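Lab manual, section 2.4: Encoding a predicted structure.

Procedure: take the sequence of the chain (307 residues), apply the prediction step described in section 2.3, and record the output as structure tokens. A sample record is shown.
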Amino acid sequence: MRSIKFFCVVWILLGLTGCGTISIWRGPVNEPVGNYANPFEPQGVIDVRQHYSYRFLNKWRISHAWLSGTNVRYCGYGLNPFKRLGGYGELEFESDQPFAEWEGVLGSISEHNGQWRFVQHTEKIYGTNPEGKFERYETFCHQFFLSSRNGFALYLIKPDPVKDTDSWIDGARPFHFKGVDWLVKEVPPRDMTGSRGPLAAPIEIWTLKIPDTPYWMVLKFSADLQYSIRERPVQHAGLLDLFHMIVASVKLERITPIDIDPLIEAAVENKRRKEFAEQQLSREEKKLRHECAIKGSLWKALDPRCK
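Recorded output:
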């Protein structure tokens, strides 16, 4: 595995946010990938051209790049409603929904049909299911390449030792790069052949403890010792380069606080009213609503009960 220090020295010497190229890997185009052939596998030129930015707790602007190309997944932040609506000044600057806390819960602010919403990403930020039970932290951004069994993942979490987040930084070393203080953990690659679980495991974990908050941003790169590194070294190395370009793109910028508490209060109140209305529905009404929700638009139009 190439050392992280090598890549960072190259970035610094060249003054680049990565390798300075549009693309450093070409994926298979209409080419079967063994037993894992998948028409939705990323294909063609894969590079780092998607950009995301959002206000975080009225303290920071967080921005980063992400993978782009055919069949590449987008990150799941949600578009900035202030930018779409207009007339909100500095709140319109970022491309994605701002994050805020309400009663100690982190969520993002969205708007639909004139009503503000407070979106609680509990599966992502806290790793809990709708019943409040911890399962695992879900990602805001992820991409897996079956052709080389390499994975990219970006998390935004509230860490908790009970949820094993300490293992993400155990043995990590501090690394200051491009204005960001990271904790970097390198994990020896494992041969996952025959594993009934994941096809790859993390070999690099970059953790950013967001200052003045209890939250972390975490980037992970995964690989398989045999399939990724030994059998497909060129593709593995190219994707690892792209991962390091994403790391290099992460920025933290101080912002001027803007009071949006009234909007958050309105969003929370809308959520409470919706939950109360749901509780008042009878079992039959809930069943009908579910049936209508899963029907196609034509059947909805033909069924008067769904109007």
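Check your result against the sample. The longest strand covers residues 43-56.
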